[in-house]
Amino acid sequence: MKSFEISKMMLKMWQKEMSKLFNTGTKRLLAALFLLLAVSMGAVIGYSFTGMFLSSFLNGDVRSLGLFVISMFMNASIFTFVFFILFKVRTPEQHSFSMQLSWFPLTAFQRSLGYYIPFAGAVSFLVLFIIFILLIPNFIASGVGIWFAFTFFALLFVQILFFFSLLNLVYNLVYITILKFGFPLQKFFSMFALVVLAVLYGMTSFDLAKIQNAYSSFDYNLTYFTAPLFLLLNGQAADAAIVPVVLILAAAIMASFLSLNFVPILTEKKSSKLFSFIKIPSSKLLSMMVKEIKIQARNEENILNFIFLLLALCFLKYRFQFGFTGENYLVLGGVTGIIAFNSFGNDQRMMPVYKALHLKLATVLWSKYLGLCVLGLLQLCLFSLLTWTFPESFPVLLKTIAVMMNSIAMFYLAGIIFPLDRNNPYMGIFSFGMLLLFLIPLFFIGNYAIDKVTGKGLLFFIPCLELLLLLLLYGGFKWRYHYDH
Fold it and tell me: Structure pTM?
């Protein structure tokens, strides 16, 4: 079947890119150690948190089994959503791949199914692996039996496939609609609509009281829709209409497959023309700065990141009443720096051109940095307007701008050390993970140092940190600019 041949091609591409990512023995050893550590920690955490549910069930409390299954299936659905978004954002776009296949005698369904199989398989495998690590120690220790474990993971897989199918169906329907109207940035608008709908569903359906009573009065929540089937197969009463549940499961998966037939094969991709009214100046420094602004502002990943950050900020403010007032306004300046993370990777292929044009290293570096600062200020203004949050005083505004400039420098430095590459489907995930591993301890170390240093010591300590950051930024860029090409 042609779809399976396409799937094999994609798997080979992913395997090739993984080989590029872990191309040395040191990298493979570090990856193996990190995986071993993560698995060990997951097993310990899972054993600690899920043991009480299973022990209560084995001691005769059947209600605890319902709560256990519902919570695990809900977690699996959340993981499915996260990985769906992560793969869509960080891996090469499906329709970029489909444009390469547009000259082959393939139907839209064959091409879409060829992409769907490895995508769904990868997400399902990752979610099952995480839940497996969390639960298998308890399953073995408590002796729940082979049938219990088999039906649990079988129905968990059905839940993952069901929720994945719903996400894919919504994404495809929005994508097809946008194409009908001829708008650019189809992926951006489709992801935006998907995230908004998911957040709205989560906000309206998440009710702790309902979840706790779902065992006795099932509420047909989509995040644990298959839970009654597991309870039924293990001899427990399930207060749910089983036949409609099965029919809805089948209908959702079938509709997702049918939607693949309507996603057209693209032969060209419409690009964004944001800031096209800005003319390129004659000055080298200004022309590079304008170029950086246009490239980063038109990048779909950056647009998606902006939307996700805006949704997160609105969620914090209006759902949890977290006001960005006073010193908290600095948070808005800090999150704008993420726009610099993929700057070096997006422009990496142009570095030999800059060298051929005899552009000085400082000209390239600081023009890009200034362009990113302009975009950061623009994002800060948009965040303030859209969340209706403004600095309470001029000193707070100055501090926020300083935080923004430092955040941009740190994210840009991280992007130099771990450059993002859109041709490598795993580099973005790896880079973001490494960034978190470095930033989290640095954050606590910095907070501890600032708490210990007070008064006049801060006047010396902070400029030293700023100088160190500038030297690291310059040194890292110099290393890439002169030796990496």
Answer: 0.66
